[in-house]
TrEMBL record:
Keywords from the UniProt entry: Cell membrane, Glycosyltransferase, Lipopolysaccharide biosynthesis, Membrane, Transferase, Transmembrane, Transmembrane helix
Protein name: Putative glycosyltransferase
Membrane spanning residue stretches: 235-256, 276-301
Domain Glycosyltransferase 2-like: from-to ranges: 4-159
Superkingdom classification of source: Bacteria
Xref: CDD domains: DPM1_like_bac (cd04187)
Transmembrane keyword on record: yes
Gene Ontology cellular component terms for the protein in this record: plasma membrane
One Gene Ontology term of the molecular function aspect: undecaprenyl-phosphate 4-deoxy-4-formamido-L-arabinose transferase activity
Species annotation: Kordia algicida OT-1
PANTHER family: UNDECAPRENYL-PHOSPHATE 4-DEOXY-4-FORMAMIDO-L-ARABINOSE TRANSFERASE, UNDECAPRENYL-PHOSPHATE 4-DEOXY-4-FORMAMIDO-L-ARABINOSE TRANSFERASE-RELATED
GO biological process, one term: lipopolysaccharide biosynthetic process
Length: 318
């Protein structure tokens, strides 16, 4: 099969039939073999009924329905597990992503051998204050932390080699950072294509301002996992040793100062009455806890690596 189109959706019953017709026209015009996977993320309107009707009439249409709203990342994860096409295209169901982009995205993957191609909505029809400015800030921060020179990390229109989506674990709200996850998994040939962005035709957006807060928190998580996910001791251990040595040196200085004053009959307060003594003691305790956190992280990772080696061995023997 040439292409799998994965479409996560929530309450988009007005656009589904039009979207299917548009995709099928593009596919048939280019003689692609294809499947369309609609992932209903807990819709409360007629979305699932329409998906069911389409699947009864057209064998290339398949549907997955969640019992409740789990989020776009979980919907993409479910779609990626079921997708069987050589190239996987993701797009939103609100008709803001144009299926006419599919042939060029497909060619970039198959002909130019990109692992992943991300869409760039260079000209947007969203609110400037509500979406455009926050989106620019968000993408700037993502570029700085990830090293990927993409203009639009959160564009729903993307193309992947099948092997990429099978090796990327999308969870939480990490759908915004699939290019970063792919890079961390070893897929470095990541490109970008300017795509058409259309004004929303039906309904209203499902995302609020909280998505930007969650997005930046997820970005911090991705940055940390990229830098220290495989070596937590390098961060926590280094911080722990540094803080412990600072606290130990401060406590030693306090003790030596006390002995010096006693030796020369100088006025001196009790060590336990010195507030700096407790600050240095607290610093040593926190440093020890950081070190232990790094040590425990290494143990967890070692156990995980052992489990992965066992799975690989079992597969090879089979």
């Amino acid at each position: 099969m040439n292409i799998s189109v994965v479409i996560p959706l929530l309450n988009e019953d007005e656009s589904l039939q039009e979207l299917y017709a548009w995709i099928s026209r593009v596919m048939e015009a280019n003689k692609y073999s294809y499947e369309i996977l609609f992932i209903d993320d807990g819709s409360t309107d007629r979305s699932w009924k329409i998906i069911h009707e389409l699947s009864q009439k057209h064998t290339e249409v398949k549907g997955i329905r969640f019992l409740k709203n789990y989020g776009k990342s979980q919907a993409l994860h479910a779609g990626f597990k079921r997708a069987s096409g050589d190239v996987v295209i993701t797009m939103d169901a609100d008709l803001q992503d144009s299926p006419d982009e599919i042939p060029e995205l497909f060619n970039l993957i198959t002909t130019e051998n990109y692992d992943l191609v991300s869409g760039w909505k260079k000209k947007r029809y969203d609110s400037v204050i509500a979406k455009n400015i926050p989106s620019k800030l968000f993408n700037w921060a993502a570029r700085r932390t990830s090293g990927l020179k993409l203009h639009d990390f959160n564009c729903g229109l993307k193309a992947y080699k099948n092997i990429v989506i099978k090796n990327v674990d999308v969870y939480g709200e990490m759908h915004r950072y699939i290019p970063v996850l792919a890079k961390n998994a070893g897929f470095n040939n990541i490109g970008e294509k300017v795509v058409i962005h259309q004004a929303r035709k039906y309904g209203k957006t499902k995302f609020g301002y909280d998505r930007f807060i969650n997005g930046f928190l997820d970005l911090i998580t991705i940055w940390f996992l990229s830098k220290f996910g495989k070596r937590p001791m390098h961060l926590f251990g280094a911080l722990g040793v540094l803080m412990f040595m600072i606290g130990f040196a401060a406590a030693g200085y306090i003790g030596i100062t006390k002995l010096y004053k006693l030796a020369y009959d100088l006025p001196a307060i009790l060590v336990t009455n010195n507030p700096w003594f407790y600050i240095s003691l607290t610093t040593m305790i926190i440093g020890t806890q950081f070190f232990l956190a790094g040590f425990l992280g290494e143990i967890v990772l070692r156990s995980k690596r052992d489990k992965e080696r066992y799975k690989i061995s079992e597969t090879e023997n089979f």
